[in-house]
Amino acid sequence: xxxxxxxxxxxxxxxxGLLMVASYYIPHKYSVDYVELMNKWENIVSAFxxxxxxxxxxxSHYGKIKRxxxxxxxxxxxxIGFLAMVVxxxxxxxxxxxxxxxxxxxxxxxxxxxxxxxxxFAVLAFYIVSTAYRSFRIKSRQAFxxxxxAFVLILGKVxxxxxxxxxxxxxxxxxxxxxxxxxxxxxxxxxxxxxMIGIAIGAIVTSLKIIFGIEKQYMGKx
Length: 222
Prior knowledge:
Layout: H1 2-23, H2 29-67, H3 72-92, E1 97-98, E2 101-102, H4 104-135, H5 141-156, H6 159-169, H7 176-185, H8 187-211
Helix pairs in contact: 2-3, 3-4, 5-7, 7-8
């Protein structure tokens, strides 16, 4: 029983993972068919995982409502919001417009979803300002460079900032828009690519650890 619970899943993961990696480097019809088959199974597993997560979410909030735990009133809005979007979607076959008329799903998107999203982003702006205040405390040269870049970007996004730049630094012949474009196209892109390279290396290392049985957390606590 211990062999079935531990060794067989590890063998399946290892064989499947090695075949998936090899399929990207072997230009053959069987490799292409194998990748397409795995992609189909990935979509199927993702759909069931989404359904399982949805059931778990509802069950968790149902427990809060039943126990009347702190904030249980917010759990009611999970069900209300779900029904406010799913029921109109089922009634309209997922269409927001029919013959130029807004459907119930379109109304829900426009007056419920978009309104809530706008409110969420409006509240998020205050958290961003608070985080920026704590992050931009100049304690090193790197923090100073980050502060200058952020200050220039913020300055160039408002008309008053452009007026200040033109009056103080207009003699340089460089507009604030040109400086912002250079920051976004050169240092920001370089930093983004470095982060993506780091993420890719981390994903490769984690995948290899899973394939060769070093990482076993997906098998549970036992």
